[in-house]
């Protein structure tokens, strides 16, 4: 087995371990308030495993926005997983069924960390995902019982993650093509954020990758 | 009613995440497609940075996150390890929120 490669991934993910627990608990609390019940909250964390979309769906239900609005918002927010998934398509080994299962370990954090050496690494992606998944689901379960553990914003976790992604972006900026692509993607996101529904700016920014067609 | 949300969002997200590894798999991509996939990482990372630093509900929000990320940027520039970058960004945002 690839146990040692997973171990590298688990180690790479350790600095992030607190976040899914705290954000998971916040989600669990919000989901119960929104009338999803403890089972619905845990089921959503276990199947969707993507923070921003889950928070959006639960907030909309909590505000009485209706199921259709919650579904559309969450799907738009998670649409970024299509380009992210395409980028790592080739690193997953094994049968189609195994790839289907293990591809569920793709979350922003595991995806971004697995590319830190400039090319995507399966062991890191799977290891980080395997570490974060039980913490996210467990944090959710805890949140449905005891409520918030600690406000993630009070300890600045909402600033830690964009900083992490910036650090992971930095090594790519050595080549001119990647630099231009990142700049265009950032500009598209910035331009759309004030107008477009959440999630749409990121997906639109993935079109910047068409710059890759230029020599 | 919320079970419909759980089921539909869960199913769609599973499909989104599986799209690459299941549909493309390990097959060799045509060079033009490969050159686009190659720069997807910097594009998506840049979009994540901007969204998580300034994103609100259809608005740009300039708050403690931006200052935290700026401090993290200095740490990156000084070649600090990832964990240090995250702690610097988090501590900066948390401290400014205290005052």
Give descriptors for this structure:
A: mainly alpha, 0% strand, B: 99 residues, mainly alpha, 2 domains, 5 helices
Structure description:
- The complex is a heterodimer of chains A (215) and B (99).
- Chain A is mainly α and 215 residues long.
- Chain A has a domain at 3-152.
- In chain A, 67% of the residues lie in helices and 0% in strands.
- Chain A contains twelve helices and no strands.
- Chain A has helices at 3-13, 18-33, 37-47, 51-62, 67-78, 81-87, 96-102, 108-113, 122-146, 157-169, 176-192, 200-205.
- In chain A, helix 2 crosses helix 3 and helix 3 (37-47) runs antiparallel to helix 9 (122-146).
- Chain B has 99 residues and is mainly α.
- Chain B has helices spanning 2-24, 31-38, 40-54, 64-77, 82-98.
- Chain B has two domains: 1-28; 39-98, no CATH class.
- The chains are: A mainly alpha (215), B mainly alpha (99).
- At the A-B interface, helix 3, helix 4, helix 5, helix 6 and helix 7 of A face helix 1, helix 2, helix 3, helix 4 and helix 5 of B.
Quick structural summary:
The complex is a heterodimer of chains A (215) and B (99). Helix content of chain A is 67%, strand content 0%. Chain A starts with a helix and ends in a 10-residue tail after the last helix.
């Amino acid at each position: 087995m690839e146990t040692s490669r997973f171990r590298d991934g688990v180690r790479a993910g350790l600095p992030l371990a607190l976040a899914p627990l705290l954000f998971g608990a916040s989600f669990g609390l919000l989901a119960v308030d929104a009338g999803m019940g403890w089972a619905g909250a845990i089921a959503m964390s276990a199947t969707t495993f993507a923070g921003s979309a889950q928070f959006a769906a639960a907030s909309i239900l909590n505000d009485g926005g209706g199921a259709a609005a919650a579904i559309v918002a969450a799907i738009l927010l998670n649409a970024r997983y299509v380009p992210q998934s395409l980028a790592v398509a080739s690193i997953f080994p094994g049968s189609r069924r195994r790839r289907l299962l293990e591809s569920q370990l793709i979350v922003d954090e595991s995806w971004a960390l697995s590319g830190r050496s400039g090319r995507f690494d399966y062991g890191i992606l799977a290891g980080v995902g395997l570490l974060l998944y039980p913490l996210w689901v467990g944090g959710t379960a805890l949140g449905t019982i005891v409520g918030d553990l600690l406000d993630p914003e009070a300890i600045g976790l909402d600033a830690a993650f964009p900083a992490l992604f910036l650090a992971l972006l930095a090594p790519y900026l050595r080549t001119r093509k990647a630099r231009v692509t990142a700049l265009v993607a950032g500009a598209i996101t910035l331009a759309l954020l004030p107008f477009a529904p959440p999630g749409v700016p990121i997906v639109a920014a993935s079109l910047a990758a068409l710059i890759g067609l230029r020599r | 009613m919320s079970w419909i949300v759980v089921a539909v969002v869960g199913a769609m997200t599973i499909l989104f995440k599986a799209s690459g590894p299941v549909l493309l798999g390990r097959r060799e991509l045509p060079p033009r497609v490969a050159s686009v996939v190659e720069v997807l990482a910097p594009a998506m990372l840049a979009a994540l940075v901007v969204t998580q630093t300034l994103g609100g509900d259809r608005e740009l929000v300039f708050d403690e996150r931006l200052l935290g990320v700026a401090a993290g940027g200095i740490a990156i520039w000084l070649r600090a390890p990832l964990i240090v970058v995250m702690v610097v960004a988090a501590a900066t945002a948390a401290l400014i929120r205290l005052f």
